[in-house]
């Protein structure tokens, strides 16, 4: 069931559902999430079951504001506080030491927890309604909300994507198409220095400028990195096989296949030609942000067209494109 997320009655209905232990499809500025009360192990177990996700693969907990840090985090280093001030609400997840006794299932059993304050107005409205319920109702401090799709598959960026993937019985708040389009940047703050676990819309340079120190990579430090969402080698994968290629290889491949080419989609910045009308040619924007915003919708569209192969022009190896490159590399793994 899809409801208009901008209506107060829809927010109230979704908040009641979450307090009852049900799941809700939640729009954020990155992708749509599958939300549950983060402190309810039973509700969180439904998230893992619905997605087919291993229960030791942690979920990101979404909060209404930085005030919720004290509920979930045992400590917040100075550089993490600076990142919160600079980028919350927004597409940044911080991995922090977890307070004992809270959100254990959502954290995948780890002593750390991923926290994010989303910027989407519908997400903000629902989180506020959960945190400050009507008299006599139970408050919810945060929502565990991984992407609302089957584990390892392409993330949803519209309410219809969620319903197509998880069924009509799920209550989904429609907040329109996601503005960012790829998942949040994840920074590990548990090892004494900021460590990049997953690139996203917020770049390394932006993070380093706020922290006033170099952003480390997960293998730079001797202690093992905590497990985090979206960091498996193979992830974000469409049904069709995806392959990354440069523009010359793409055109050579199309020339070799000629008029007999079929069941193939191509997503490229460079203008390409095919002798076959059965090849789907889709132009990739020259801008990294525009590409991120449409990327998952494009991949889902190719699957809907029943192609068997997706050829994608490898994005530029520059900081602005790092998030898109990461998602495509994992989709092709």
From TrEMBL:
Alphabetized PROSITE patterns for the sequence: YRDC
Protein EC: 2.7.7.87
Keywords from the named record: ATP-binding, Cytoplasm, Nucleotide-binding, Nucleotidyltransferase, Transferase, tRNA processing
Top EC class, one word: transferase
InterPro entries assigned: DHBP_synth_RibB-like_a/b_dom, Sua5-like_dom, Sua5/YwlC_C, Sua5_C, T(6)A37_SUA5, TC-AMP_synthase_SUA5
GO terms, molecular function: ATP binding; double-stranded RNA binding; L-threonylcarbamoyladenylate synthase; tRNA binding
Catalytic activity: L-threonine + hydrogencarbonate + ATP = L-threonylcarbamoyladenylate + diphosphate + H2O
Binding site for L-threonine: 30, 62, 116, 145, 184
GO annotation, biological process: regulation of translational fidelity; tRNA processing
Domain YrdC-like: 8-202
Record's keyword annotation contains Transcription: no
Location(s), subcellular: Cytoplasm
Record GO cellular component, one term: cytoplasm
Residue sites binding ATP per the record: 53, 147, 155, 198, 236
Electron transport keyword on record: no
Family: Belongs to the SUA5 family.
Described purpose of this protein according to its UniProt entry: Required for the formation of a threonylcarbamoyl group on adenosine at position 37 (t(6)A37) in tRNAs that read codons beginning with adenine.
Full protein name: Threonylcarbamoyl-AMP synthase
Organism expressing this protein natively: Simplicispira hankyongi
Lineage: Bacteria, Pseudomonadati, Pseudomonadota, Betaproteobacteria, Burkholderiales
């Amino acid at each position: 069931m899809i409801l208009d997320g901008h209506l107060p009655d829809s927010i109230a209905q979704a908040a009641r559902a979450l307090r009852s232990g049900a799941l809700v499809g939640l729009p954020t500025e990155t992708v749509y999430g599958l939300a549950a009360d983060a402190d309810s192990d039973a509700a969180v177990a439904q998230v893992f079951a619905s997605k087919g996700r291993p229960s030791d693969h942690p979920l990101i907990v979404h909060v209404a504001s930085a005030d919720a840090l004290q509920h979930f985090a045992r400590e917040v280093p100075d550089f993490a506080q600076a990142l919160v001030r600079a980028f919350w609400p927004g597409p940044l997840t911080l991995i922090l030491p977890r307070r004992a006794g809270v959100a254990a299932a959502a954290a995948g059993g780890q002593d750390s927890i991923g926290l994010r304050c989303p910027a989407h107005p519908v997400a903000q409205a629902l989180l506020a309604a959960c945190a400050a319920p009507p008299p006599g109702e139970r408050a919810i401090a945060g929502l565990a909300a991984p992407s609302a799709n089957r584990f390892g598959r392409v993330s949803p960026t519209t309410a219809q994507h969620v319903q197509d993937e998880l069924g009509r019985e799920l209550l989904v708040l429609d907040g329109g198409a996601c503005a960012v389009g790829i998942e949040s940047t994840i920074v590990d703050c548990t090892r004494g220095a900021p460590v990049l676990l997953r690139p996203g819309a917020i770049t390394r340079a932006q993070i380093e400028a706020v922290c006033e120190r170099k952003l480390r990579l997960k293998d730079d430090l001797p202690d093992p990195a905590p497990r985090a969402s979206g960091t498996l080698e193979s992830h974000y994968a469409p049904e069709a096989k995806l392959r990354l290629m440069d523009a010359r290889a793409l055109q050579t491949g199309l020339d070799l296949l000629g008029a007999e080419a079929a069941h193939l989609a191509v997503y490229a910045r460079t203008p390409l030609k095919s002798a076959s009308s059965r090849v789907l040619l889709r132009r990739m924007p020259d801008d990294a942000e525009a590409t991120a915003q449409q990327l998952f919708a494009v991949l889902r569209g190719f699957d809907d067209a029943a192609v068997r192969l997706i050829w994608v022009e490898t994005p530029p190896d520059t900081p602005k494109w790092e998030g898109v490159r990461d998602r495509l590399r994992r989709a092709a793994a």
